[in-house]
Amino acid sequence: MTKRVAILISGGGSNMISLVESMENGDIDAKPVLVLANDPEAGGLAKARAKGIATEVVNHRPFDGDRAAFEAVLHKTISTYRPDIICLAGFMRVLTADFIDKWQGKMLNIHPSLLPKYTGLHTHQRAIDAGDRIAGCSVHVVTAKLDDGPLIGQLEVPILTNDTADTLAARVLVEEHKLYPAALKTFANQ
Ligand code: GRF
After folding, report:
1. Ligand 1 centre from 90 Cα, in Å?
2. 6 - beta bridge partners?
3. Which residue segments constitute the domains of the chain, with CATH numbers given?
4. pLDDT for the residue 146
5. Which of 146, 172, 173 to mutate to test the pocket of ligand 1 (most atoms within 8 A of CB)?
6. Atom of ligand 1 nearest to the CA of 173
7. Closest residue CA from atom 13 of ligand 1
8. Average pLDDT by consecutive 10-residue portion of the chain (190 residues)?
């Protein structure tokens, strides 16, 4: 059965594009039914529209910190598109356990570190500061504990002696664009 995939973004959506293109070329038996952003200025929205994908914006700012109210609108909006799978792709809002429970086992996230190392933010700077030789990215099933669910896949990226967080992030992002489609394919075929 062709799985229906909703993709949540906050920014440029480069991971969203790599997922969409892997579905468009038939590599995965799935189709993108929604690209949703929490920021109306998210650059990924125009990219999704250019590909003819339905888009929605649920701006978190008007909710002024009321997570439950924001997530109620988020859940309702996503639900109208009847996704089988939700992919968080550069989505920068922390979701509560209540929301995650509604999509238990159906939501993936990509994180720019070799989990379980460096959950949270500033992953590349932390790896450099720790003197690590290897960085990377991970796709996992989303659970209530941040960046902690069952791993679907990981890719390693060597840390070079003159790397900055930005130069490392750029190389990791290239690997993310390979990893996420492969991970979605594995997950969709389960
Ligand atoms: C990526 O590094 C991803 O790992 C993180 O957000 C960054 C930007 O992603 N979650 P994108 O270009 O918006 O897909």
Report:
1. 4
2. 34, 86
3. 3-188 (3.40.50.170)
4. 87
5. 173
6. 2
7. 13
8. 96 97 94 98 98 97 95 98 98 95 96 97 98 98 92 98 98 98 95
Ligand 1 atom nearest to 44, measured from its CA = 13
Distance CA 179, CA 190 (A): 17
Ligand 1 neighbourhood includes 15 CB (under 6 angstroms): yes
The answer to whether residue 111 is catalytic is yes
Q: Are strands 107-111 and 134-141 parallel, antiparallel or unpaired?
A: antiparallel
Catalytic one of 111, 124, 140, 177: 111
Q: Which residues contact 105 (CB under 8 A, 6 or more apart)?
A: 141
* Amino acid 190: pLDDT: 86
pTM of the model: 0.95
DSSP string, 95-150: PPHHHHHHTTTSEEEEESS-TTSS-SS-HHHHHHHTT-SEEEEEEEE--SSTT-S-
